[in-house]
Amino acid sequence: MTPLVASMGLLLQIATNSDLGYRFTLPDGFIGFPEGRSQRDVVDCWSELMPYSQNGALVLCVQRMRGRLARGRMKREDMPPTAQLLTYKWKGFEIDGFRADTAQARTPVVILAVQVPLRREAIQLILAGPRDQAQRAEAIMTSTIASLEGETNWLTSTERAGRFGNIVGWVLGIAAGVILIRIWRARQQARAA
């Protein structure tokens, strides 16, 4: 019974970081990979316990971006030269990412990176591993993004419309006030004359 409980624990692991304000479900079979944290700004990292490929395991890391993301598309200069732009769905938003195909020690490697606009600080999820696992890596990235929870600094179209409505309401209220004051003054001047 103990191995079953241990394997259930692996299936239900949650990655969380209260400083950056995110939480997501780890992909099945991924365990902590502390060696990955040696890279600049990487706050956490996980690797497959049992690789599906003889060429190695997939590795998932969270990298802090030290700032907020503005709305708008990722620029070509923000990506590696051979990368292709990708789009992922998160909380009703389309967020940018990229795919880069490269090699490490003569082994073809795929790297997927997605930038998530969290309120406190944007993060970048990076998933890398053998290129023969590219399709599986894309499915894992999509499900990881779908499970990611955290407040965003981006406004939904409803929130933007609400703010615009408030602004229009204030402008109309001020305009009506100015008109009423002018009418009142005109009447006061007419009575005085």
Salient structural properties:
193 residues; alpha+beta; Protein Transport Mog1p, Chain A; 2 domains; seven-stranded antiparallel beta sheet; 3 helices; 9 strands; 31% helix; elongated
Question: If you had to describe this structure to a student in words, what would you say it looks like?
Answer:
The chain has 2 domains: 2-147, Protein Transport Mog1p, Chain A, CATH 3.40.1000; 155-193. The model is unreliable at 5-10, 159-166 and 168-172 (pLDDT under 50). A hairpin with a 2-residue loop joins strand 6 (84-90) and strand 7. Helices cover 31% and strands 32% of the residues. The strands form 2 sheets. The chain has a 7-stranded antiparallel beta sheet with strand order 3-4-5-9-8-7-6, covered by helices on one side. Strands 1-2 form a two-stranded antiparallel ribbon. The longest helix has 36 residues, at 157-192. The protein is an alpha+beta fold and 193 residues long.
Task: Give a brief description.
By secondary structure, this protein is of the alpha+beta class.
Class per helix and strand makeup: alpha+beta
Looking at CATH, which topology of the largest domain would you report? Protein Transport Mog1p, Chain A
Assess the beta-strand content as a share of residues.
25-35%
Q: Given this structure, which CATH class of the largest domain is correct? A: Alpha Beta
Helix and strand arrangement:
Layout: H1 2-11, E1 14-17, E2 22-25, E3 30-32, E4 42-48, E5 59-64, E6 84-90, E7 93-104, E8 107-116, E9 123-130, H2 134-147, H3 157-192
Antiparallel strand pairs: 1-2, 3-4, 4-5, 5-9, 6-7, 7-8, 8-9
